[in-house]
Amino acid sequence: MSEDLPDEAYAIALALMPDFGPAKLRTLFAEASPPAAWASITGATSDARREMENQWRRHCDHGITVLLEDSALFPERLVRRQVAPPVLFCLGNPRTLSDKPTAAIIGTRSPTRYGIGVAAQLATELSAAGVSVVSGLALGIDGAAHEGACGAGAPPIGVVAGGLDEPYPMRHARLWERVSNAGVIVSEAPAGARAEKWRFPVRNRLMAALSDVVVVVESRHHSGSRHTVSAAVTLNIPVGAVPGSIRSATSEGTNELLSHCDFPVCSVTDILVCLARRGCNVTIPADAKPGRQPTAPVPASEQQLYAALTYEPTSLDELARLTGLDFAALCGGLERLAQAGFARDAGGWWERI
Hints:
The mean pLDDT is about 85. Strands 1-2-6-5-4-3-7-8-9 form a nine-stranded mixed β-sheet, with helices on both faces. The chain has a two-stranded antiparallel sheet with strand order 10-11. The chain is built from 16 helices and eleven strands. The protein is α/β, with parallel strands linked by helices. It is globular.
């Protein structure tokens, strides 16, 4: 059977070998094709062939697309920036990686309500403007960004550290499913690979390389966001930062970043203008006024939340109690309802329009 397997199957087998990271794979593939490299390392024994077939079947069964650099679906922006991984794993539609302008929204795993709300709002408005939101599917700002982006317009892009066969963190299993169904989740790790510590800086570099702009919302000093920012600076990708309270430890990193980043982010327009100046095809809306008429029925995914709203302002705490949603999912849903003209923010409380 192995004689009929594609090069991608051999690449998977090599990527799963101990101590075979992206740098070692890149060197191998520069010297030999994946089948030749695999044969030279394993001796092409019957046990090795059988294991490779099982690994290939596992990826197929999970619906994981495997992309080598010569694939027609391999994202051109990675090749252009000369940071193409030796192999890229995708769950969802890999065309999402190349179809739209992209903006990464990143930040702390322990955000304030302010940070969650801002991340969800920016992501919803970016998606509605035709920009794919890139984030790491982690707890906190990443999750809030993807909650806001899912179903708002342009397909979202998740970038993760481990294999695509098991959501990490497990608390985001539902969000993984939504992101992969609406857009794509990508990783440099094959199915079966754990989200080991060394893989997160690799993930962050890939996240920056897939983005046309990087936006930081709430970040502490020396947080993981600095890896993504550093990668963006190296690749000449603009970095924006959302100002935060000087009394909040979660904004120490972003407020410091304001002194040397490319631009402050006070609204989605700041991000869209940056993208437009870089030649991206985006729609920069006039100031959206609350109270516009809905143009479609309430989406099925937001009906529970819409039912909890009244024409009197309701607090986030009360809405969370009524719906059972966590704050990231709650803010994402509210922002999508606001974007569609069904709800509005009334000074931190929410009401139907």
